[in-house]
Specification:
Elements (H helix, E strand, L loop, with lengths): L2 E5 L2 E4 L4 E8 L7 E7 L6 E6 L6 E3 L7 E6 L4 E6 L8 E8 L8 E4 L3 E6 L1
Parallel strand pairs: 2-11
Antiparallel strand pairs: 1-3, 3-8, 4-5, 4-9, 5-6, 7-8, 9-10, 9-11
């Protein structure tokens, strides 16, 4: 079975940093694009970042470019999202998802449980 679990959320002041981890099991990273999404109440799930299975390229939403960095450790079946210069607008539940799509929630095959990030002003 494919399983995904996100870790690392918490409360941080604006301007601070957090690193999220998503641990995967039941598949190899080469099989899927691995994405981070986030959701706030009343809004659609938003694609944040992605690592492509084909060549390891990374993609980011415009709202996080230059502040967030996604990386992977294939030996640990883990992807990371380093979030710097956090803003209150980054407050959300963050999820990892895997599938063929890039930053597209409807193109995900599997979802992990989320982790809450709260950025105080």
């Amino acid at each position: 079975d494919v399983q995904l679990q996100a870790f690392g959320g918490g409360l941080v002041q604006a301007g601070g940093s957090l690193r999220l981890s998503c641990v995967a099991s039941g598949f190899t990273f080469d099989d899927y694009n691995i994405n981070w999404f986030r959701r706030t109440p009343g809004k659609e799930r938003e694609g944040v970042s992605c690592i492509s299975s084909s060549d390891g390229s990374t993609y980011y939403a415009d709202s996080v470019k230059g502040r967030f960095t996604m990386s992977s450790d294939n030996a640990k079946n883990t992807v990371y999202l380093q979030m710097n210069s956090l803003k209150p607008d980054d407050t959300a539940v963050y999820y990892c998802g895997v599938g063929e799509g890039i930053l597209l929630p409807d193109a995900m095959d599997y979802w992990g449980k989320g982790t809450l990030v709260t950025v105080s002003s």
